[in-house]
Amino acid sequence: MSKTPKNKNTVISKRKLVSSYDPYVLAVLEEDIIIPVEDEKHVVPVKYEVIGTLPSKERYLEMRNEKFRSTVEDLVSSAMDELQELGQELRDWYENLPEAFQDGEKGSTLDESASMLEEIDSERPEAPVAVAKLEMVFLPTINTTSRSARRDAACAILEAVSDKLAEQEKMPAIEEFTQQIQEAISQAENVEFPGMY
After folding, report:
1. Which of 126, 145, 165, 185 sits 20 to 30 Å CA-CA off 34?
2. Domain boundaries defined on the chain
């Protein structure tokens, strides 16, 4: 690890924090150990004041893993909620198009994609009791601004859960749950997100 200042009240750049730890550093340390420094030139903070002691790399990794530890049930629920929200956004977009455009190529794509996401949500996988509270660490995708990136992030969560389930003892309920997750991933990956224009 490159050296980072450990003194309180030191100002450190975001770039230095990320290179010293990893891209999740702000989510892990912000508020308790670092706070953003306001800067009129930048909308997004680029400097942070150290208000606590910066952890060692080993301690940071423990903190990061604790921050991103979740249960199988909660991870699947958050991924499915994201897919549901995307489906609702596409449905709203489609319904707000003028009728002439609803019948066009973009309207057809929006309607079909919204329907696919709605179908995925209607067949939402339910975690069996045997694995619902199983804990795992999942590091989320950082850049999820576009709809396709949000879909990919949801699929990445489901894929990570599927991988975790593969490590478990074989049981029919777990195998069925894994299959439902894989079907949701496959369907979601086929959803098209048309451009704005």
Report:
1. 145
2. 11-67, 69-189
